[in-house]
Structure formats: structure tokens, C-alpha cells
Amino acid sequence: MNVTVVWATPGLQDVVAVELAPGATVADAIRCSGFVAQYGLDPATLRFARYGIRAAPDALLAESDRVEITRALLVDPATARARRARVKAPATRPPEAGRNALT
Which of 30, 35, 37, 84 could potentially form a cystine with 7 if both were Cys, beta carbons 3.0 to 4.6 Å apart? Predict the structure, then answer.
């Protein structure tokens, strides 16, 4: 069976097609791609996806699957959004003319 393995960073995208025996797993595809050795990746910090959906290393593959190697998140997205919201200056509203004239 043929599958595609992808490794991408902000400055690089590498795609390789690998041929695997039926019953192969995500881990088998990663091993056959050679990306771990080629790019000096730390297997303990890597995560995997199949067509953008998180996949375990022991997940079975099907013909023409696309396996992506991803990195672990450095910061929880919710925490990052909260941090940006605290730093962002509050929006100011221009004073309205005559607003207090009726009181």
C-alpha cells in the first residue's frame, strides 16, 4: 500500500511517498519516511495526524493515506488567547457630542 508522509515547519515542507505492507501503522510510515533521522527529530515530542486528524502511532493505515508529523504545542491555545487579550489595549470610544446635555 502507498501512503504519503509529511513534515513541515514554517520554513520547510517535505513530502515523501512510502510503500508499506498491508496492516502497517502510522509508526511504520514514520519510520519508513526517514524524517526522524534526516531532520534530527525527537520522537518523544512528536505527534501524528492522518489527514489533519490526530492519530496514534499504532493507528492502522489505508491505501493513499496522508500522515502528518506534528510537533507538540508549546502553549495551550486558550492560554495564548487569554494572554494576548490581556496585552491588547482596550478599545476607546470617542465622546459623543451633547451626550450629557439632557441630564
Answer: 35
Does 93 reside within a domain?
no
Angle at 96 between CA 85 and CA 84, to 5 degrees: 5
What are the pLDDT tens digits along the chain (103 aa)? 999 999 998 899 999 999 999 999 999 999 999 999 999 999 888 999 999 999 999 999 999 999 999 977 777 778 888 888 888 756 666 666 656 555 5
What phi and psi values does residue 70 have, to the nearest 5 degrees?
-120, 160
What values do phi and psi take at 31, rounded to 5?
-60, -45
CATH of the domain at 9: 3.10.20.30
As a whole number of angstroms, the distance between CA 71 and CA 82 comes to 22
Q: Identity (one letter) of the amino acid at 102? A: L
In a domain, 92, yes or no: no
Give the Cα separation of 52 and 41 in Å (integer): 20
